[in-house]
Amino acid sequence: MPSARSNRAAYFLIAPAILILAATSLYPAIFSFALSFFNWNWGLQFDFVGARNYLDLFRSAEFWQVLYQTFVFAVVATILELVLGIGLAVVVDRLRFGASIIRTLLLTPLMVSGIIVALMSKIVLDPMLGIVNYVLISLGFPPSPFFGTTATAMGTVIMVDAWWQTAFVFIIVLAGLQSLPQEPIEAARVDGAGSLQTLFRVKLPMLRPVLFTILIFRTIDTLKVFDIIFGTTGGGPQIATEVMQTLAYRKAFSFLQMSEAMTVMVIFSVIVLAISLVYMRLEERMERD
Amino acid sequence: MVMHARRDQMERLLAYLISLAAILLTLFPIVWLLSVSLKTQRDAFAMPPKLIFEPIADHFLGLLERPGFVEAFLNSVYVTALGVLIAIVIAVFASYGIHRFRFRGKKLFGIWLLLAYMLPEFLFIIPMYVLYQRIGWYDSHIGLALVYQVHALPFAVWLIRSFFKEVPAELDDAARIDGSGHLKTLRYVYIPLAAPGISATAILTAIWIWNELTIALSLTFGDAQTITVAVASFRGYTSINWGQMAAASIVAIVPMLVFSIFAQKYIVKGLTLGSLKG
């Protein structure tokens, strides 16, 4: 049906998008890749060094620690947000009155900027003056140093991210639950299945494609975390909460090690894009089944 | 039967209790932030915390005198409007192109959009920083709004395209038989029918740009500094100026909260359609 002429029309329609994306994503990707083979630090020095930047990174313990921490943050935060978000959606789905106002209220964190979430958490989680420790002590629990020690900082930033982004999982799963066909659910009920059984045997399996999409988005988004960590610990104490994006920021804008920062980002982008492609493949396969 | 009904009631009661707890956990930090923005330093640091206090406006008034803060707010309004405009206009054309035509490289274009959306910010921020320093676009509104397109444009194309899919094919065919060209079909069939979806996309893009920090932090300094960068500048203070930090945060939150109350239907529609129908 589409003629050669209409094909040309399609190229005209997508041309502006291609131009902008070429300038803002393709050009930078090539530039970063190229620069990762030089030793440019804003100065006059600009020598080709081959794979040395890569080898230096692979030999540094700091790099592996930061990569590991990035994954710890992403995996734990994603699982936590999925569990909490699905749980909350199941609960709100049961409500009869006030469900829409409750949904609105639970959605508020998504309207708040990450940097504000970070600063807000610094106020409520302050070890000395924060309200949370005051409440903990009043209830007879020990206070926590939260962002203050290497042992607790990572858990705390993960908790803050979960406060922020659980709503994203919640709202989509809730909409998914509400759009499910009623017949299989009724059938399970008639067969004597309880609510939990219906949930795990009927509802959640039917939502599998939606849950998978959420999983992709949360994994990639948490791998790329920046503002929550920048605004709270800045990667510290020492480098206990440093992740790939804060590492690149520090190298480029604090130490002016441009080539090194680009090398970090090239490696990280390859990892992120590889994970995206694997997920996309799995999703395609799931759709075919 | 009676047993069943009672269990149902118990479950519902439990559901209300859990929802209530979740709402408390969600709103508490924001309410606390608001209270800190209205407290004197002494009241803010008081232990036990002062639940009843005399509110003061000093921190908010102080923001007016803080260099660059008001400008940062206006910059955010401007950059958000510009960024949304670019994303929506270009995405409407691109979505129509993808929706309506088969062409060579279509799949590749789709993958490129997705990968661009997934790219970690600093991969493209640092080269754009270097480029902008050379061509004088560093710390400019247009420069920032353009870099936002790396994430905003794929997002908008993806959403608008899924809204275009809902337009009945018969209407498209009818317009064609009446002799409408592509631009006319887009203008008189697709855009009006998908208007609620396009609004939803614009609203979500606006919220994202308004709240974005990573890119703005690296590509602006003074002239085009956004509200999130201005708020972030409170971060390093050793003498903890909680009051003003909280006030600045509230000023940055309020526009989006008000916006979200009026546009809630659209926000939910945009967020869910995107992931439910892909």
What does the secondary structure layout of this molecule look like, with pairings?
The complex is a heterodimer of chains A (289) and B (278).
Chain A: H1 4-35, H2 52-59, H3 61-93, H4 99-107, H5 114-124, H6 131-138, H7 150-178, H8 183-190, H9 195-206, H10 208-223, H11 227-232, H12 244-254, H13 258-288
Chain B: H1 2-37, H2 41-45, H3 58-65, H4 69-100, H5 106-118, H6 121-135, H7 141-147, H8 149-164, H9 169-177, H10 182-193, H11 195-211, H12 214-219, H13 227-232, H14 242-262, H15 264-277
Question: Which structural class should the secondary elements of chain A be placed in?
Answer: mainly alpha
Number of helices of chain B: 15
Which structural class do the helices and strands of chain B define? mainly alpha
Q: Count helical runs of chain A.
A: 13
State the separation between the terminal residues of chain B, measured CA to CA.
41 Å
Count of beta strands of chain A: 0
- Elements of chain B, N to C (H/E): HHHHHHHHHHHHHHH
**Which range does the strand content of chain A fall in?**
under 5%
Task: Report on the architecture of this protein.
Chain A has 289 residues and is mainly alpha-helical. In chain A, 74% of the residues lie in helices and 0% in strands. Chain A has 13 helices and no strands. The longest helix of chain A is centred in the first third of the chain and has 33 residues. Chain A starts with a helix and ends with a helix. In chain A, 42% of the residues are buried. The mean pLDDT of chain A is 91. By secondary structure, chain B is mostly helical. Chain B is 78% helix and 0% strand. In chain B, helix 8 packs antiparallel against helix 11. The model of chain B has no long low-confidence stretch (mean pLDDT 89). The chains are: A mainly alpha (289), B mainly alpha (278). At the A-B interface, helix 1, helix 3, helix 4, helix 5 and helix 6 of A face helix 1, helix 4, helix 5, helix 6 and helix 8 of B.
